[in-house]
Design brief:
single chain, mainly alpha, about 0% strand
Length: about 120
């Protein structure tokens, strides 16, 4: 079971890297007001959602403690990110506020995952 959990953790990290990497590649464009949500951002967020749900289930099945409040906060943040990216994915340019919100929420999710014990 540990190997399976570690595989899903790795996939979860790949999802966050895709979401954050997509954001970082558009930082210069955000300054110019021409940033857009790239497909990597949507795919990364969806990967995070699927692997995160799988990780919660696998950890509970393995009788490990799961901090449900932490998972709930992370899920809520991810749902907001997904909603913003999904709704505005086809627009040629996204306003700076929405784009910065996705970046800020992504970083917040990373800090919650690593610092909240």
């Amino acid at each position: 079971m540990d190997v399976l959990i570690n595989v899903f953790v790795a996939l979860h990290v790949i999802g966050i890297a895709s979401l954050l990497g997509g954001f970082l590649t558009q930082m210069k464009a955000m300054g110019a007001g021409t940033a857009r949500f790239v497909p990597a951002m949507l795919h990364g967020a969806l990967t995070m959602l699927v692997t995160g749900v799988a990780l919660v289930g696998l950890n509970q099945a393995d009788d490990q403690n799961v901090n449900n409040i932490k998972i709930g906060v992370k899920l809520l943040i991810l749902i907001v990110i997904l909603a913003l990216v999904y709704v505005k994915r086809d627009e040629e340019k996204v306003d700076k506020g929405a784009f910065a919100a996705v970046g800020g929420l992504t970083v917040a999710n990373i800090f919650i995952a690593t610092l909240w014990t």
